[in-house]
Amino acid sequence: MKKTIIALSFLGTILTYAQEKNNNPVKEKQIEGVTITKTKKAVEQKADRTIFDFSEQPQLNNGNVLEGIKKLPGLVSTDIAGMMYQGKMLDVYLNGRPLNITSNELNSFLEGMPANSVDRIEVITQPGAEFPATSGGAIMNIITNKNANKYLTATYSGNYSFTDYDQFRSRTTNSINLNARNKIFGWQLNVGQNYRESMLNGQQDDLLTSKTDRYSRGYFAKSGLTFDLGQDRLLLNYDIYHNNNDNYTLSNGHGDLPFENNLNDLREAFYNSSDVAHTNNLRQEAVVTYQKRFADKSQKLDFQFGYTRSDSKFAQDNFFQDGEFADAPNLPINSATSGLKDILNNRSVMNIANFKIDYSQPIKLLDGGKVSFGGLYERQDFDTESFGLTNLEYQRQTASTYLEFQAKLKKFDFTLGSRAENYDISGVTRYLDKDTKLVEGDLIPFNKFKLFPNASVQYNMMNQVYIAANYNKKISLPSISALNPNNVTFSGPSTEVNGNPNLQPTIFDNYELKISAFDYAFMGYSVSSASNQVAQIIRKDGRKLYNEQVNISNMKIHNFNVGLPIPFMIFSKPLSEIMKFNFNPDKINFMYLYAGYQKHDIDNLNNKGFWIFNIMTQIILPKDIKLTANYSYLTPKAGYFYFTAEKPFNNSFDITLTKKFMDNRLTLSVFANDIFNGQVMQVRSNPPSGTPVIISSKYDTRNFGLSINYKIPTKNKLAKEDANILNQTKKEDNGGVIPQGQ
Fold first, then answer.
1. Over 70: is that where the pLDDT of 646 sits?
2. What residues contact 211, with CB distance under 8 A and at least 6 apart?
3. Residue 341: partners with Cβ closer than 8 Å, 6 or more residues away
4. Does pLDDT of 721 surpass 60?
5. Selection from 702, 606, 579 nearest residue 199 by Cα
6. Contact, 50 vs 125, CB < 8 A?
7. What's the CA gap between 111 and 660, in Å, rounded?
8. What is the average per-residue pLDDT within 65-81?
9. DSSP per-residue codes, 472-536
């Protein structure tokens, strides 16, 4: 035990020594040329973000993106309240641009993306002035970029998994990445598909029991062109994502149904129903980027124009509905909707256009610094339709500019900036009342100019060891899925799901103190103070369940978290030998421990905090077979917004075995997820008004499968890597104090 304590105390020195060695690129000499290789880090801690590498971690990239995200330490993802990382609500970006979707639509989108199409995920916990103030508490940036190579190269990725609960269900993903370059331009094409059969069992208090068979089909294509114009570059990108899903639901429930099809005469009834819901989403993005470069590589000027269109359709058909009324003489139900098509028929269209300019250059400030400034104009239109009636017309115009300084003084790094944003939000809602009369009204307008400052100071204690303090003010605009007044989930006689077009934006004040060492080890405390936080509530009124979106006037989220890597060699080798060891994370046995405590303070609600635990272990077996085990657990009986977890949100144990063949060109993995079938969600709602309810859901999370990644070799050994061209928005930052990201 004494030896272990001593070893842990010297762990910092050991890893620092190793890091210094690993920072020196390894040159592999070939007769025809030189190839520079660099080992990727599984987890990288920076002052303002945490970076998770997906491309080299089979335990993360063997399913869809949502499954991989749920394994990240410190991240909580639920169907009822969205995603949080280390106590901060996440705004989800794709390749540097916001998706503008949340909740079930976001989950469906991420389920339709194969995880092996992701290069890395950056969780930006302290977005600076360069990022839009609408980033809210934090940003999760999913980066799907791949490197383009000179001469034609190709990489194939495939995955097959299955579940076997009440029946056998299969899941497949396939994608191929093509890269090439000639004397004039470089191009890249990444295409893929995802087919997924799954199960969902649900219980909504004593009002509804359901069993759903889900069939999801997703397709995507990402294309990019890059033209070198002297020192400058022109990037053209076009992406398309398509999801087509069908959910077949058998349900039985207890509610109030129209007696003899009279909507004004509702009576208690017990019913059985069979329904199918169809979801069809099409998202298209086009981006043009011009990068102006100067003799000083630290001086940069970027122009970017982007356009996004998202079309969504949701319809529900009923195969049959039967049962009986509770009143004597137990008359049978004769529902007018039984066997009818289009019980629900909702559509939405979102269009977003934006233009932004970013400029940065080094300046003489203290021991060296940098100034960055720029501007953004964005226009968003969102229209929803139900049975031919346009019931929401939403418009938002945002004009913003920012100025940020970074400076260095001895062992201190400073950042000070501010972003000014002007919002003009308006719209119209329409609905039919009980007498089928059209009622029209204006949304609550939001026309304000606001300043959003940010500041940080970092003290570099030694190489790769620092302590940082951060503050920023942000705003989070209600997502389009929360504003959508139409129901886009399964609807039964005893449930009602509504968006809220009158939701107001949320203002955040974010504070954080963090100590980080050697990329993997860290400890931090943060608090987010939010005004008008958007939250979901579920309440019961009589025999009806209501699912709604509301604003919380004031709340605080406290979060403490710590992460620690433990190489297993400290238990078997003397320190003198360990000090000489050249660490490579792919070649050593280690354990990574993460623990986080989170508490939600909401007025008039006594929420208890909860702990999040994650243990990831890597063991190198004979024949260079890598075993990765991941265990996640979230303590129950704790408050999560307006819900109390009766059972832990996270409780899963996953194992992945990986072996590389053919000079590392072929990677083969076999995996088992949620081996003990412990992943289940059961919560009790704590609504501000109405009756609390118990909600539970169980997906078929226990699955087994095989993943393959094959890099088709090129015969030309002069092939060299170019910069990423698939939707690249990241600045090449050689002279900054704190690296900027996408």
1. yes
2. 199, 200, 201, 202, 249, 250, 251
3. 315, 317, 318
4. no
5. 702
6. yes
7. 27
8. 74
9. EEEEEPPPHHHH--S--S---TTEEE---TTPPPEEEEEEEEEEEETTTEEEEEEEEEEEEEEEE
Strand partners, 427: 394
User: What Rg value do the Cα atoms of the chain yield, rounded?
Assistant: 27
Q: Pull the structure tokens for residue 209.
A: 């029991």
> HEC string of 379-412?
EEEEEEEECCEEEEEEEEEEEEEEEEEEEEECCE
- Phi/psi for 2 (5° steps) reads -60, -40
How much is the pTM?
A: 0.78
DSSP-derived secondary structure for 641-666: TTEEESS-S-EEEEEEEEEEETTTTE
List all residues 6 or more positions away from 77 whose beta carbon is below 8 Å from its beta carbon.
66, 69, 70, 83
Helix and strand totals (H; E) in the chain: 7, 38
Q: What amino acid occupies position 42?
A: A
Q: 329: cis peptide before it, omega within 30°?
A: yes
Q: How far apart are CA 732 and CA 730, in angstroms?
A: 6
In this structure, what token pair is assigned to residue 292?
């102006």
**Strand (E) or helix (H) holding 107:** helix 103-111
657 and 644 Cβ atoms separated by less than 8 Å: no
The three-class DSSP label of residue 42 is coil
Q: Bridge-partner residues for 554, per DSSP?
A: 531
What letter represents residue 66's amino acid? L
Sign of CA dihedral 306, 479, 47, 402: positive
Strand 88-94 vs strand 138-143: parallel, antiparallel, or unpaired?
parallel
Q: Beta partners for 87?
A: none
Tokens in use for 621?
Answer: 């077996």
What pLDDT does residue 383 have?
93
Contacts of 429 (CB under 8 A, 6+ apart): 391, 392, 440, 441, 442, 443, 485, 501
- The pLDDT value given to residue 702: 94
Residue by residue, DSSP assigns 567-591 as EGGGGTS-HHHHHT----TTTS-EE
Helical segments of 304-450, H only? none
